Amino acid sequence: MFWGVQFGSGNRSFASTAVVKQNVCTNETVTHYEQGVYQSEHRFIPRPGATEEDDGALVGLFFSGVTKMSTLQVLDAKTLKRLATVPLGMKIPFPIHTTWFGETSQALDIIV
User: Fold this and answer.
1) Looking only at Cα atoms, what is the longest distance across the chain?
2) What's the angle, vertex CA 88, arms to CA 68 and CA 8, rounded to 5?
3) Which whole-number Å values give the CA distances from 61 to 28, 39, 105, in the listed order?
4) Over 39-69, what HEC string results?
5) What whole-number distance in Å separates Cα of residue 19 and Cα of residue 34?
6) What is the pTM for the complete model shown?
7) How many angstroms separate the Cα of 45 from the Cα of each of 49, 55, 78, 86, 111?
8) Each residue of 8-38: pLDDT tens digit?
9) Fewest Cβ atoms nearer than 10 Å: which of 7, 29, 46, 82?
10) Exposed (0-12), middle (13-18) or buried (19+): which is 108, by Cβ within 10 Å?
């Protein structure tokens, strides 16, 4: 199982993006696409006690070409349905690589 960002999703232009889940065993593909919204890389967070590899959430940045603002969105990792949206009140340049740190010491270790 892997998740990624697909450019030129479906029959759309190369500038369009979608979050894609690919099951490498069954070749099943699930896609999350929103017109005019550009998606950066996502981080998978497993549900505590999960027994399936896609039981959890994806957290990532989305930039709206309409509002020119960014949001953080949480998607269900299995279905790619939106669970939550957090407006950031600013534009974060697209595409940006995302990294999430749970503890300040992890961020400092990488920077040093």
Assistant:
1) 44
2) 50
3) 24, 6, 23
4) EEEEEEEECCCCCCCCCEEEEEEEEECCCCC
5) 10
6) 0.78
7) 12, 9, 12, 17, 23
8) 755 665 567 888 999 999 999 998 888 888 8
9) 29
10) exposed
